[in-house]
Design a protein that fits this description.
Radius of gyration: 24 Å
Strand order of the largest sheet: 6-5-4-3-2-1-9-8-7
Number of helices: 11
Strand content: 5-15%
Shape: globular
Order of helices and strands: EHEHEHHEHEHEEHEHEHHH
Distance between the termini: 36 Å
Helix content: 25-40%
Number of strands: 9
Structural class: alpha/beta
């Protein structure tokens, strides 16, 4: 889904209200919220989001001037005691996913140090019943050969953790294919040897990959920008329906005015989601309507009721296809309640078990 990255510092009350309305109207599963100088206001906004969109998962970033590459400046313990421990009960209550280090890059030795630091930090989160958003690399980073060095992070992760890099495209036509910046998260999946729960922490258009210039600087209309984000979802949706959320940068412009999400972006995307067909809907084939025969007189003899048979069209379905049918029917009836849970591999394993029960029937 196409979600939001909200920086509460410098965001007007009207901007926060509009962001919350978007999250509710489009039934988002995740959101990035950050605050630093106005951390109390940021926490209040988190509480509003959790109260009005209770199924949503909040990724939380405690901003400060040392945030980027903080692992090279302080130990994991030092950062944890200042950014997590004082807010532990609040974070537990609101099921916060914490983002510890922002946009680290460097040579192999620095990435090894980073991976061990993140793994230590993650284990501290787990001890307190909390989870993390790891590997928040800048778009186009790290070097492809370095993803194998992140194994300590992948080995540490438990259900509830995410990898959350940033992935930006350029304005249409420059460069073709956005220079390999999209779908880079799959390099982590390859290094880990499995699909990792993933949310793109920052997404959008960076003009010529200049970090200071966004879609507004590139001369894109709100509608053109929103449509490009929709078109790019093809890079974030697997064949089995697993969809990676992306958080558009950003609400609360701060010093990045060219990225500020204007009202036209929200309206265009809300209209898209309002008319978007459910992602998994498999209907049973229609059968001709027939006039029922006249019912015979009731009998007092015991009647053996045969077990209902699966329709013929189901006989040759694979286990995976049966799972998709089961999930599609569940989503049709209980979509709002279930959508927030079907975001990781564990959910799909449960659906696979459901498919196994279907297989056992014949």
């Amino acid at each position: 889904m196409i979600g939001l990255h909200v920086v509460v510092d410098n965001a007007s009350p009207e901007a926060l209200d509009r962001a919350l309305l978007y999250l509710k109207r489009t039934k988002q599963r995740t959101v990035d919220i950050a605050a630093g100088a106005q951390i109390d206001r940021g926490m209040q906004f988190v509480e509003r989001v959790r109260a009005e969109a209770p199924g949503i998962t909040v990724f939380w970033r405690n901003l400060d001037p040392e945030d980027t590459g903080i692992h090279a400046k302080h130990s994991a313990e030092w950062v944890y005691q200042r950014k997590v421990a004082p807010f532990r009960a609040w974070m537990q209550r609101h099921r916060i996913v914490f983002m510890p280090d922002n946009e680290t890059s460097g040579d192999d030795e620095r990435i090894r140090t980073y991976a061990n630091w993140e793994a230590d930090f993650g284990r501290m989160l787990h001890t307190d019943g909390l989870y993390g958003a790891f590997c928040r690399f800048a778009t186009g980073n790290i070097v492809e050969s370095q993803y194998r060095l992140l194994k300590p992070v992948f080995d540490m992760m438990t259900p509830g953790d995410y990898v959350s890099p940033n992935e930006y495209s350029a304005q249409p036509g420059y460069p073709p294919g956005s220079g390999g910046h999209l779908e880079r998260y799959k390099l982590m999946w390859k290094a880990a040897g499995r699909r990792l729960p993933t949310v793109i922490g920052e997404a959008g258009v960076a003009m010529n990959y200049n970090p200071g210039k966004g879609y507004i600087d590139a001369g894109m209309t709100d509608e053109a920008f929103a449509q490009q984000m929709i078109d790019e979802q093809v890079w974030y949706t697997d064949a089995d329906g697993y969809e990676v959320d992306r958080h558009l940068f950003r609400v609360g412009a701060f010093s990045y005015g060219g990225y500020m999400l204007r009202s036209g972006v929200f309206t265009y995307l809300e209209n898209y989601y309002a008319h978007k067909e459910p992602p998994i809907v498999i209907a049973t084939p229609d059968t001709p309507t027939q006039t029922p025969p006249t019912a015979p007189p009731p009998s007092t003899d015991p009647v053996e009721v045969p077990r209902a048979e699966d329709p013929i069209w189901m006989h040759n379905l694979t286990k995976a296809k049966r799972a998709r049918i089961a999930m599609g029917r569940l989503m049709l009836e209980f979509g709002d309640e279930l959508r927030g849970f079907i975001v990781d591999d564990e959910a799909y394993e449960l659906i696979g078990e459901m498919a196994g029960m279907l297989d056992a029937r014949g």
